[in-house]
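#lab-general

N.A. 3:47 PM
ok so I finally got the sequence cleaned up, no stray characters, all 246 residues accounted for. can someone with queue access submit it? mine expired

B.Y. 3:52 PM
send it over

N.A. 3:53 PM
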Amino acid sequence: MSKYAEIAHDIRASIEDGAIAPGERLPTVVELCELYGVSKVTVRKAVELLAEQGLVSSRRGSGTFVKATPESKGVDGRHAGDTLYIGRTDRSIGFTNEHAHQGEVSSVVYLFAIEVPPAEVAARLDLDEEDFCYHDVRARLLDGVPLVIEDTYMPLELVPGLKRHHVEGSIYNYLRQDLGLHLASFHRIVRAVAATAEEAERLDIAEGDPLLELEQIGFLDSGVPFEYSVSRNVGSRSALHTINIT
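B.Y. 4:20 PM
back already:
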């Protein structure tokens, strides 16, 4: 393992065990050079690797900070007690591409708006309180059968030109092919939840039926978060390894 990778691994371990808390600033480049006895180039490569992994982000003139991820603080106070899985993945193929050879993929869009997101969502996307986001809620269907309800926020400034027809199709294809963005990693929590009356109607199931909830923050290769989403998947129609959002 290279020296910069060793440093990144050490800092990541400190983040994961809570020694460096979400929102806390990392030591400066000079301080890290002194701590590890390496050059500035090596430290910068280590920090770049952490950013690519979605663990830290840099703020001009302020330093590099540990990012808040779903596992560090769940929405509405939900924590590990009701959690099936906490972790990170590099998979970003998306619902459309993953199911393209299984049948006809379609969407029913229930909401597509530009709005100021809730404070909890803004914090996860590293946004100021008055920054705007796209907010969409949609069901994803395979051969007319609804598999999942997705509730997604994306920063307006980071994802310019998003239109309803993109939401009806594949948002990830638009991000990659039209905007040239590189989707790098995802921090995810999976939980077991019961379907609400509204979800039951939209998913054609009974109220209270079990769903797999996926709470996710997606990061670009720069470490910048591009998406916060919560999806609820019909357990009897979905496999955990196929859960993705596009």
